[in-house]
Amino acid sequence: MSSNPDLHSQLKELIPEQQERLKKLKSEHGKVQLGNITVDMVLGGMRGMTGLLWETSLLDAEEGIRFRNLSIPECQKKLPAAKPGGEPLPEGLLWLLLTGKVPNKEQVDALSKELRSRATVPDHVYKAIDALPVSAHPMTQFAMGVMALQVQSEFQKAYEKGIHKSKYWEPTYEDSLSLIAQLPIVAAYVYRRIYKNGQVIPKDDSLDYGGNFAHMLGFDSPDMQELMRLYVTIHTDHEGGNVSAHTGHLVASALSDPYLSFAAALNGLAGPLHGLANQEVLLWIKSVVEECGENITTDQLKDYVWKTLNSGKVVPGFGHGVLRNTDPRYLCQREFALKHLPDDPLFQLVSKLFEVVPPILTELGKVKNPWPNVDAHSGVLLNHYGLTEARYYTVLFGVSRSIGICSQLIWDRALGLPLERPKSVTMEWLENYCKKSA
Ligand SMILES: CC(C)(COP(=O)(O)OP(=O)(O)OC[C@H]1O[C@@H](n2cnc3c(N)ncnc32)[C@H](O)[C@@H]1OP(=O)(O)O)[C@@H](O)C(=O)NCCC(=O)NCCS
Question: What is the dihedral of CA 18, 21, 26, 27, to 10 degrees?
């Protein structure tokens, strides 16, 4: 089975054994307690409350993300690359997330080819985007494009025809692969429409997923293509509880198709405490340079950080809802910068922030994680290669996130996961409950 180059056939083989596994877990351990729910958890955004099944990745607060048990450095080592020793191909990560197995080059090439064969976007999608003012936020235009793609949903058609529930995963797979294949085209269209007078660059079928995405945006340098492969790979998935992943999963639990579910996820990603932070980081770094120049001293930088905090704002790119250490997605981007652009002044500023910000956030006394996250780094890399439009950055994150969210959605349907419906309570209910249990 491991050498079969067809992803769909591999999944077909894997699904029955995973269904059995879930059934056994339910029947043998269904009543095992996973912890206590406290009032703090209910009031605190459900932090620390284990409540979701998410197969594709798992986050450790100290170590960071593992994609199907592989850390980011392990993925960089084991997943096929476009060139020897190069960054992993995102298609390889898609395969890994879906199957739990590291693909060989032939399997990844077959998947690249399949994605290319699905990469045609109907005209009405461009028209839907064109109906918005060019000044609309890139994420709004992107989400609009995804909604317009929904018209082609195979899941919706199959459901209307009365498909048996044991087969739900098949049209979900079809929709997911088509969506993943078409997103770079929609995303590049939004970029070229807003920033390049609408001059669209056609796809290049000789390129892989990440390389072609960079090409359609207008960047053909081999280093930018490598950056895009790395970028798309590391932003795919971050277990299930983050806003975009959870939203996608929640909406899909109502049997909304992958397009509807992913469009909802994108709207969550567009929030400044989540995906929009990458935009905020570069804008903030540029504001530092504007005010203090590129050769800012450590003391000036400290003052600027305090000024940001004292004006009631967060320092973008630092902190995390779950992580309690430097994000490995930050570290691999730092490695990339050290290899390809060590002298870039903005990279040097990012390095200085790595030294200056954590002690200040620690001094505040309330920040649970003073360390940098993924968003603290991505902007300066993109900026270095000429993708300077920070407002667009979250769209890149969105393209990548489709790979994680859709992989899990396929498993949601394959495993027959139910409608999500947690219990909510009022403050009055909590007060009465606490009085009774005192
Ligand atoms: C990511 C983030 C939303 C996590 O939120 P969280 O889980 O509530 O974080 P904490 O529990 O550490 O927050 C405790 C307090 O510290 C503050 N804090 C956390 N990170 C901070 C930061 N980078 N700068 C300033 N204050 C911060 C919070 O705003 C909160 O303050 P409050 O009690 O006055 O409301 C938060 O760290 C943040 O806003 N970071 C900046 C935005 C960002 O980089 N987002 C991308 C995440 S990948």
Answer: 140
- Residue 274 catalytic? yes
**Whether pLDDT at 180 is above 70:** yes
Say which of 175, 208, 237, 375 is annotated catalytic.
375
Distance, CA of 426 to CA of 430 (rounded, Å):
6
| Percent residues over pLDDT 70 in the chain | 100
**Ligand 1 centroid from CA 370, angstroms:** 9
Pairing type for strands 70-71 and 57-60 reads unpaired
Percent of the chain with pLDDT over 90: 96
412 is catalytic: no
Atom of ligand 1 at shortest range from CA of 373: 48
Q: Is the CB of 279 under 6 A from ligand 1?
A: no
DSSP type of residue 415: T
Task: Calculate how far, in angstroms, residue 160's C-alpha sits from the geometric centre of ligand 1.
Answer: 44
- The structural domains of the chain, ordered by start, are 277-384 (1.10.230.10)
- Ligand 1 site, residue 366, Cβ cutoff 6 A: yes
Q: What is the 3-state secondary structure (H, E, C) of 124-151?
A: HHHHHHHCCCCCCCHHHHHHHHHHHHHH
pTM across the whole model: 0.96
CA gap 65, 338 in Å, rounded? 22
- CA 48 – ligand 1 centroid, Å: 16
Determine which of 85-89, 213-217, 292-296 has the lowest per-residue pLDDT on average.
292-296
What is the pLDDT, as a whole number, of residue 241? Answer: 97
Q: What's the pLDDT tens digit per position in 224-259?
A: 999 999 999 999 999 999 999 999 999 999 999 999
What is the distance in A from the centroid of ligand 1 to the CA of 45?
Answer: 13
Are 330 and 377 in contact by the 8 Å Cβ rule? The answer is yes
Ligand 1: residue of 368, 377, 393 to mutate (most ligand atoms within 8 A of CB) is 368
DSSP 16-62: HHHHHHHHHHHHHHTT-------HHHHHTTTTT-------SEEEETT
Average pLDDT over residues 174-186: 98
320 lines ligand 1 (CB under 6 A): yes
- Per-residue pLDDT band for 173 (boundaries 50, 70, 90) equals very high
pLDDT digit string, tens, across residues 57-83: 999 999 999 999 999 999 999 999 999
C-alpha 314 to ligand 1 mean position (Å): 7
Q: Which residues contact 179 (CB under 8 A, 6 or more apart)?
A: 146, 149, 258, 259, 262, 402, 406
Does any ligand 1 atom lie closer than 6 A to the CB of residue 315? Answer: yes
